[in-house]
Amino acid sequence: MNRVPADAENAHSSSVESCPSLRDVHSINPTQLMARIESYEGREKKGISDVRRTFCLFVTFDLLFITLLWIIELNVKGGIETTLEKEVLHYDYSSSYFDIFLLAVFRFKVLILAYAMCRLRHWWAIAVSS
Known about the structure:
Elements: H1 6-18, H2 22-26, H3 30-44, H4 50-76, H5 80-88, H6 98-117, H7 124-129
Helix pairs in contact: 4-5, 4-6
Keywords: Membrane, Transmembrane, Transmembrane helix
GO biological process, one term: cholesterol transport
Membrane topology: Multi-pass membrane protein
């Protein structure tokens, strides 16, 4: 007579006990079921996820930091008004930081549009804006 070892028999009986039976399925409390459904619906109604909100804040602070650095650079070179006129109206690629500011504005617009308004889930918007 072939006898099944005790460990294998216990493992088989525990796996059978872990599977829900029809009796267990019908004993679900309707109030608990409604509470679970409402909790899932509440998650879907949330406007923007925490990670997405943090990323949008990071992009916003990036724009503000670049703007602050550009204003400091304008002030150091001899006054904001005269240097601003020289860098924007008489743009020179080698001495002007206006292009860095415009790139930060473009990056901000693309990333906020893609991740906050359109809620894209793909990485291409980051690659395009970099």
